[in-house]
Amino acid sequence: MKLNSLLLLATCALLVDVSQAGVTYEQMRSASKLIRDVCLPKYPKVTEEVADAIQVGNIPYSKDSNCYINCILEMMQSIKKGKFQLDATIKQMEIMLPDSYKEDYRRGIQLCKDSTVGLKNAPNCDPAHALLSCLKSNIKDFVFP
Q1: pTM of the model
Q2: What's the CATH fold of domain 2-138?
Q3: What is the number of alpha carbons within 13 Å of residue 35 lying toward its C-beta?
Q4: I need a labelling partner for 100 at 20 to 30 A (CA). Which of 24, 63, 66, 109 fits?
Q5: CB of 106 within 8 A of CB of 93?
């Protein structure tokens, strides 16, 4: 729990000065690295190479990779107990993405808002995989921690 609080503070500190003007690509990647560094150690079967592949949209289907994705989406407040959090996702997108990404992400988020409906989170974190796969398919400049 202490690590999550530190991550939130670090992310807020990183974004405070740019919240008025939008974040830069480098600032977005720095915040993403903080999130990734929290989730990656929790899933030792997800290697750096697998995480790098997910980051660019090559999304494997396995319990470990799905639950790694779920961890990141939960930290980003996009998913909670397997349920997509539309309003929180839009709010985070507005904070965490450079302005040039926002219109495409707004459209993709709306197209994917029902992608987790009817899916069970346990045991394989299927909603996270479905949501990220949908976003990847519907967002031209896909980015992920």
Answers
A1: 0.83
A2: Recoverin; domain 1 (1.10.238)
A3: 24
A4: 66
A5: yes
